[in-house]
Write a structure and sequence with these properties.
By secondary structure, this protein is α/β, with parallel strands linked by helices. The protein is built from 14 helices and 21 strands. The longest helix is centred in the last third of the chain and has 24 residues. It is globular and about 60 Å long. The model has no long low-confidence stretch (mean pLDDT 96).
Length: 439
């Protein structure tokens, strides 16, 4: 048998890119590739890129430049760009970087085997279509290998919301939900390979409306059916839009024990003026009411969010309203970003806030969010939690996993094994993790 070719994939950005990288590796596995974690060993290097924030494309070009010596030493080395920068830049990548052999967008990577054959023949290949066919239906079945205890599962892709700052509707395309039966069988397959926790992914995951055997299923219905799978212990989903948080999904947080009490629910800003300019189609009060209803259903729900500071037109007063909203909600964890103009989005045409002002706001917001995060962590001390143990920690004999609330938790005990859900009492809280002892 010919020696397997080696594939090195570097993944940027969101969890969906992590999921896509796994699928690309499986697609190229069918063409005889095995993955390697060393770029120097690779026969093919793929960058799975993210376009969401500042200088995304420039960073990809400079990363590509660094492969020049590798390609000079091994002319057979093939280099590809995938993901959202590939989608946004397309042919331009070929023009600007002659060492690139292949450009593939997020909706066409099922065509990688054919593209690989073409580039082995000396061609350069670009495919950034939004094809009619469902890429998932054209991907090879994954090998029946054992897996770690956690996995992602893309259930929905794309976005029709067109927030004024966001490139996703342009790079990922229109909103599409995968058929429920496919998702149930993919989940069943993951569980049979050792997975105990599945995170359902979508840019707008709670807008899920997939074809089911008895009509359209909502995300809540999908979660309830997935929860019937024996051996699947935990379900999570990300990322949600406040406007799609329907009653049945809120209720599921209260009465579906396998749905974990953690929710990433971005609001972006606490100012109604800015929310309107962002085309979010909800107010700060709408969001606060929603949080109240979610907490009525599940009082210990830990909330996470995304924030943008320095959006065009944001005044000191607008920013203070964001700070007020953060204080009112009390986040367990959150992400915050300085606004960056993304080419092609409506907000990119508008005059921005001076950089030093935006930077100062970001510092203040991040200080508040990290004090909330720390407080939420410290509040876990003395409490009993369930931790899905994932892997060995850095210290000898240590295992690390995630609590229901997605806190990283360490435990050092010979009885702790990967894949177990351990009952732990939290005894200490560090900067980014908790430690516990077996009960
Ligand atoms: N500038 C800054 N942050 C952005 N995000 C999306 N687009 C931009 C942008 N142009 C943030 C939003 C989103 C998260 C994934 O990234 O907060 O929820
Ligand atoms: Fe980046 Fe958004 Fe694309 Fe994910 S969907 S890779 S976060 S641009």
């Amino acid at each position: 048998m010919a020696e397997a070719k080696k594939l090195y994939i570097k993944t940027y950005g969101c969890q969906m890119n992590v999921y896509d990288s796994e699928r690309m590796a499986e697609a190229l596995g069918a063409s005889g590739y095995v993955t390697t974690d060393k770029a120097e060993d690779a026969d093919m290097i793929l960058l799975n890129t993210c376009h969401i924030r500042e200088k995304a494309a420039e960073k990809v070009y400079s990363e590509l430049g660094r492969f020049k010596p590798l390609k000079a030493a091994r002319p057979d080395l093939k280099i590809g760009v995938a993901g959202c920068v590939a989608q946004a830049e397309g042919e331009e990548i070929m023009r600007r970087q002659p060492l690139v052999d292949l450009v593939v967008g997020p909706q066409t990577y099922h065509r990688l085997p054919a593209m690989e054959a073409a580039i082995r023949g000396g061609a350069r290949a670009v495919d950034t279509e939004f094809p009619e066919e469902d890429k998932f239906e054209h991907l090879p079945k994954p090998p029946q290998a054992r897996r770690g205890p956690t996995a992602f599962l893309t259930v929905q892709e794309g976005c029709d919301k067109f927030c004024a700052f966001c490139v996703v509707p342009y790079t990922r395309g229109a909103e599409v939900s995968r058929p429920a039966a496919r998702l149930l069988s993919e989940a069943q397959d993951l569980v049979s390979r050792g997975v105990r926790e599945i995170t359902l992914l979508g840019q707008n995951v709670n807008a899920y409306h997939g074809a089911g055997p008895d009509g359209t299923w909502t995300l809540a219905r999908l979660i309830r059916e997935l929860a019937k799978i024996d051996g699947l212990a935990r379900i999570r989903f990300t990322t949600s839009h406040p406007n799609d948080m329907e009653d049945d999904l809120i209720a599921a947080h209260g009465d579906e024990p396998k749905l974990m009490p953690y929710l990433h629910l971005p609001v972006q800003s606490g100012s109604d003026r800015i929310l309107k300019a962002m085309n979010r189609k909800h107010t700060a009060a709408d969001y606060l009411r929603l949080v109240e209803r979610l907490r009525a259903a599940r009082p210990d729900l830990l909330l996470s969010g995304d924030f943008i500071v320095g959006f065009p037109g944001e005044t000191d007063q607008d920013f203070e309203e964001t700070m007020d909203l953060v204080r009112a909600v009390g986040y367990g964890q959150a992400y915050s970003f300085k606004y960056s103009a993304r080419p092609g989005t409506p907000a990119a045409e508008r005059a921005g806030v001076p950089d030093d002002v935006a930077r100062d706001r970001l510092h203040r917001l991040q200080a508040l969010l990290s004090s909330q995060q720390r407080a939420a962590q410290d509040a876990m001390i003395g409490r009993n939690v369930s931790v899905l143990l994932e892997k060995q920690g850095r210290m000898p004999g240590q295992m690390v996993g995630k609590s229901e609330y997605l806190h990283a938790v360490h435990v050092t005990d010979p009885r702790a094994r990967a894949g177990d859900i351990a009952r732990l009492r939290i005894v200490a809280s560090g900067p980014n993790s908790l430690s516990g002892v077996l009960i």
